[in-house]
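Need tokens for this chain, all 294 residues.
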Amino acid sequence: MAKRYQKNGWKREINDILRGTCGGFLFGIPLIYTMEVWWIGSLAKPRLIMIAIALMFIVVFLLNYTEGFRKRKNNWRVDEAVIDTVEAMAIGFVCAAFMLWLLQEITPETSLKESLGKIVFEGVPFTLGVALANQFLGDSNQNNLPSSDHQENGLSKYKQNGLYGTLADLGATLIGAIVIAFNIAPTDEVPMLAAAISPPWLFALIAASLVISYAIVFQAGFSDQKKRRQQKGIFQSPLSETTISYLVSLLASALMLLFFQKVTFADPWRMWLEHTLVLGLPATIGGAAGRLAI
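Here are the structure tokens for all 294 residues:
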């Protein structure tokens, strides 16, 4: 019994961390493509960095005290809120550092002061996303469970409409990807990042896009995750749905780059590929958020 309880405890801990991490990516990705934040972090003095951390701790503590990213029966404990706040900030900083490293805004040549400044300021939305993950993105069925008969009938009807579910997922992915890509495509960040990333590094972008998208939709416990796993239809297994949704997000990214004249038909295919893959990362996360909404 003790081993089973310990195993369940570790499983809950991993699920909570995964949910918070995915929430951080959903909230933090748009700001990671903002060069002004890179510059502020690069030039920030140690005193300003400490003030930012202190203010972030207060805000995240209040969020964790009332709701938090963990699924607890009792959240009104100061000690647990403090622990969750430290953990949420740690997750947010790790996510921000990973994205900055993935986009080559932090390299081994970057000074420690500049790296810390970028991580702290870019980590703000990631940390807020971690703290808000359970409140805004948690499974609503846990708080308002329908009757078992009604739930089974709804699930059966959902599974029978496989084609409708497939089209709904593709449409939601396209809309979510366009919403995010539309805000990033006209900026100068995409060509800057594409110029700094070496071709082999693009494979890391592809892998990160697929893993984060899969985790948000199928592993983080958001929305009706059980229903999504049991849905039948074209491309409706988790792996195939993630792959197809990624391709749809890349299409949305290419269309937005073309729309804002960041690429033209006269440009070489390699430029199209690099720019599309760089913009495809946030677009894919936007597409995952779109699928959560349906």
